[in-house]
Specification:
Elements lengths: L2 H4 L8 H27 L6 H6 L4 E2 L11 E5 L13 H4 L5 E5 H8 L3 E5 L9 E5 L4
Parallel strand pairs: 1-5
Antiparallel strand pairs: 2-3, 4-5
The chain binds zinc ion.
Zinc ion (ZN) binds next to β3 and α5.
């Protein structure tokens, strides 16, 4: 165990120093959780390659399933950063609550044109339902 990380706070550390250390710890969590999502989802969870690896995912026929743009790490809306501000890094960034999406599908999701529904108890680690939602 690294005493610098896990030991008691050294007296006299400024809030700024503590904040910097927390930010570094969060960066490590983000990096490892993102990598786990890449291993699980590949480039985009809606791609046909990912669907092959996740046969229990359900894809709506009305989806625009053409991927475009680089891979991005997306948080489900209930786990998005604005909703989890102030929580610890390991609660904010989980494989349960995040997945890989290409830019196209990430934008569709943020624009609420694409719904991502959790089916079981495992979040994005389990099967997901992808539904198209069209503006009326
Ligand atoms: Zn995609």
């Amino acid at each position: 165990m690294n005493p610098d990380i896990h030991g008691p706070l050294v007296k006299g550390k400024t809030r700024k120093q503590i904040k910097a250390r927390r930010d570094r710890a969060e960066a490590r969590v983000k990096k490892s959780v993102r990598q786990l999502c890449v291993d699980r989802d590949g480039y985009c969870r809606l791609s046909s390659e990912a669907w092959e690896n996740h046969p229990d995912d359900w894809h709506d026929d009305a989806l625009n399933d053409t991927c475009d743009g680089p891979a991005q790490w997306a948080h489900l809306h209930s786990h998005r950063r604005s909703q989890t501000r102030g929580q610890t890094a390991t609660r904010r960034h989980t494989t349960f609550g995040s997945l890989m999406l290409c830019v196209e599908h990430h934008q569709q999701y943020d624009a609420h044109q694409l719904q991502i529904l959790i089916v079981g108890n495992d979040g994005c680690d389990g099967s997901l339902e992808f539904r198209a939602r069209h503006a009326s």
